[in-house]
Amino acid sequence: MSRRAVVIGAGLAGLLAAAVLSRAGVDEVIVLDRDELPDGPEHRKGLPQGRHAHLLMAAGMDAMEELLPGAGLRARLLAAGAHEIPLTSGMLALTSEGWLRRWRREGPAMFTCSRALLDWVVRTAVREQVPLEIRRATVVGLTGTAARVRGVRVATPGGDTDLDADLVVDASGRGTRVTGWLNGLGLTGVEEQAVDSGLVNASRLYRIPSGAERFPLTIVQANPYLSRPARSAMVMPIEGGRWLVSCGGSRGGEPPADPDGFLRYTLGLPDPIVGRLISGAEPLSDVHLSRSTSNVRRHLERLPHWPEGFTVLGDALATFNPAYGHGMSVAAFGARALSRELARGGPGAPGLGRRVVRSAARAADPAWTLAVSQDARYPGTRGAAPPPLADRALTAYTRRLTRVATGSYAAASVIWSISSLRASPARVFHPTALVAAAAGSPLPPSVDPPLTEGEREILRRLDRTGA
């Protein structure tokens, strides 16, 4: 019997899901998106965070390569100008407890490039590997009943039309209307949770100055333990010989949109290194702001009844403050959950959609915990539950582990494994982490960024601030 699947959304989650469905034997896969997709690595309206820094973590890359076997995704990205940054040695990071040292040892890596480039590379790879159709269309609802979804309703100039499908995947992102769509089928009571720190992102492109091409990715992280608004900044190398510089500030500490204010903001952070670097670099764009940053969880896995023929992935299920760089990886984890469930029973298996939602929700749990536990500490955060009394002991322990990580490779490895999503936050209680925290750092804390002499010379040469 011929089967058709409709995927709502042509972002990472949607395209990876489309690839999975085609490989699983679905005869016709149609991807619907409101945007006209660009022919190259260009920004599109449907990605409100598209101009800001995105980090593809090691576990996210692993999942994408598993979903697109033989596509050479890693090699494609690097050939297109993306950068592979080892967390052990290729990053300068000022944490709440001090600068992390750099180690000449292997460890997890992250990939940096513009979001537009990553989407384009993935979209090209998917189109080359599997047959699918991408249409520009706006979905306004689901068709069917509370027992089974039969397709989608699409807005057209002449009135709404129905597109039948055996399986519908909502991967429409942060702006999904899935709660209303389910209400329209009589499925009510979706629990939604939002934790909003009021974060504003401000980003600007710069040309990488001659000689600074290999300068490390540089992050000044926000400190959640000061009872002050979050304030952070990052200098990230991307394709085309450019730096993407992104600042982030929570409610009361928002970065400005004017170029002079943007520079002042970076110089006013606990360490002025980001401002010193960009003060001598050539700007290539205006400052772009975005306020679409809240953590939102739709607990669809808790609904007592779920329709056959429907599932939800990516930001439509759970979306995170982009400051933590986990959204793209979690989207890949959700598509992998779909792949594994399809392998068990095929596209027509009873209960498929519900099992995928539950698996994808579990895959989102670590990123949700990391994001919400941090954002809840900033003044003015909305929707955060008061921390339990036991949280004080946990906070003291994690702060100690982070402090030890500034001079201990064993402790730093724990932090890197969690931030790269290769391990859950529970890894902080692994015996190796407990031993490292108890032993303390064998090295004294570094007051200054751990730069090589050549990197110090680059920073001095670029600095126009006198800092």
TrEMBL record:
The keyword Mitochondrion does not apply. Keywords: Monooxygenase, Oxidoreductase. InterPro entries: FAD-bd (IPR002938), FAD/NAD-bd_sf (IPR036188). It comes from the Bacteria. Residues 5-181 form the FAD-binding domain. GO terms for molecular function: monooxygenase activity. The keyword Oxidoreductase applies. Coiled coil: none annotated. It comes from Streptomyces edwardsiae. This is FAD-dependent monooxygenase.
